[in-house]
Amino acid sequence: MIKFFNPGITYQKHKQEFDEAMQKVLSEGQLILKKEVEEFEQALAEYIGVKYAIGLNSCTDALYLALRGLKIGTGDEVLVPSRTFVASAQVIVQVGATPVFYDLDGVLNFTKKTKAIIPVHIEGAFDVNFAEIMDLARAKNCHVIEDAAQALGATQNGKRAGSFGIAGAFSFYPAKILGGCGDAGALVTNDACLYRYVKDARNHFKDDARDWGVNSRLDNLQAAFLNVRFKYLPIILARRQCIAAMYQEGLNFLKWLKLPPHTEGRVWQDYIVQTKQRNELFEYLKINEVETMRNNYPFPVPKLPLAQKYEDETLRLPCNENLTNEEILQIIDIIKKFQ
User: Fold this and answer.
1) CB under 8 A, 24+ apart: contacts of 97-100
2) Does residue 116 surpass a pLDDT of 60?
3) Catalytic residue IDs
């Protein structure tokens, strides 16, 4: 079986480095908000090109705390795409605001209540000219909080995802481009006030009880693991680019299969193909021992027409950096024989 995702291979590749980094944390007994977390935050901020990064439990918490830090709540509206993971909308509801969904055409319905936009860099891509989004947000006096959970390393016009808006949220869930060994996330920002709020909020505001906080600390073991992984991020991104190029070359002549656009600056969290025979292709690949994923976001987020059509017709092919060329060529050959 060609697995969609196999984190065990990642561990085995760099086992000695992972073991040494994590054993150091355990032997020193420095488990919460110590040096490893600070090192990871500094490395992430420098990589994204912002002043600050705060290690958190998840991208969900990053979005939630950003909204709270910007004082968005009851009576406010936040624009969010229909095609996204449920968490992008869930956090809006959690702060008491109302999510207003937009479709794949990118038409944004601003009102006097609109206080923020949460654009999602889905599958590691910028779907629009982001400078235009920023100009529109400034004209409407709205904050932009980037959901970059799937887009670490993606760029547009020389800027990295997460550095355009007032804040960017990242996920280090194991299946992400920079996957940890459990749940992890981060918020990045250039705004000093938002940075201080989120940094204090993640630890219950225990040193400054000016608000109700949460428990959303990135622990040192997780940070130690991520520090090892971070060194290999350029290799990870390059390998995923290579896999995407192999799919493009091997499948682009199939008239019944629509391939994803290879836009400049894209990173490949997933390689998603589109076909009206999605379910049949899924079962066919399963029979041929290729693990794929469908129904990417089967959650109670309102599905607008274009997003629903896309969701019904798309299939994620294996695209993680641990796949061999032989495995990718095997997948391509199997798909070619589908019709």
Assistant:
1) 97/67, 97/72, 97/73
2) yes
3) 176
Which H helix or E strand runs over 187? strand 185-189
How many Cβ atoms from other residues are within 10 Å of residue 24's Cβ?
Answer: 14
Measure the CA–CA gap between 67 and 30, rounded to whole angstroms. Answer: 31
- Parse the chain into domains and list their residue ranges: 8-231, 233-336
Q: CA angle 149-236-63, nearest 5°? A: 10
Name the average pLDDT for the chain. Answer: 95
List the one residue out of 302, 335, 304, 305 whose CA is nearest residue 318.
335
CATH dotted code for 233-336: 3.90.1150.10
pTM higher than 0.85, yes or no?
yes
Q: 8-42: per-residue pLDDT in tens?
A: 999 999 999 999 999 999 999 989 999 999 999 99
What tokens does 126 get? 């910028």
CATH code for residues 8-231: 3.40.640.10
